[in-house]
Amino acid sequence: MIAHWDLVQCSREWHELKWGKVGGSSSKGLFVKSDTLLIQVLSEHIEPFIYNPDGYVSDDMQRGIDLEPVLQHRMSKFAKVEFKNAGWLQSERCSLIGISPDGITADLTVSYEGKCPQPKKHAETLYLNDIPSDNIHQCLHYFTVNEKLEKHYFASFRPECDYPLFVKLLTRETPINLGTKAKPVVKEIGEWAELANTEALELEANLSLALQQLDKI
Questions:
Q1: What CATH architecture applies to the domain 2-215?
Q2: I want to staple 148 with a disulfide (CB 3.0 to 4.6 A). Which of 34, 88, 99, 108 is the partner?
Q3: Could you state, in order of their start, the residue ranges of all structural domains in the chain?
Q4: Model confidence pLDDT, tens digit, residues 167-217
């Protein structure tokens, strides 16, 4: 895995490096049997990168940006490690996948993904004592991209709350359900990460075929 330590997240260079790749936010597509993710990646491979410095930033997004350094400090104290910034972690196993970590140690063995949600979402996370279902694939993607990773923390942080910090630890041995409550599909994270890598390599092959077909038009 290649760590781009000096790459600033949300910069032009960061957006350009991520162009045409599968990051954490789109990683759920690796587990969906459709062409949606392939078409998304293909669309970025057949058009030039365009940088929009004035792209839309919602209030929630800005809140996360503002609280990010505070949360990183809290997580470093919680995990008793020093989390560093890295713009992008690039898989060497598959050129199409990577992730932008919220924090990771210098030896690449411990990382965390932090969210700064609205009151209802934070309260639900506290009440259920679990990672929200819409964040679990992103956490899994850390293990898919980074084969050195041993521990990963999910953090929900809301400083206004009486219970401001929720943290859940994941390892490669942690079982997670990627099915539903009614029809659970449970495997250890290490197994899911291996399946995700297989799907990513298949996506890479299908992208190559699609580009070859387009060249014949």
A1: Alpha-Beta Complex (3.90)
A2: 108
A3: 2-215
A4: 999 999 999 999 998 999 999 999 999 999 999 999 999 999 999 999 988
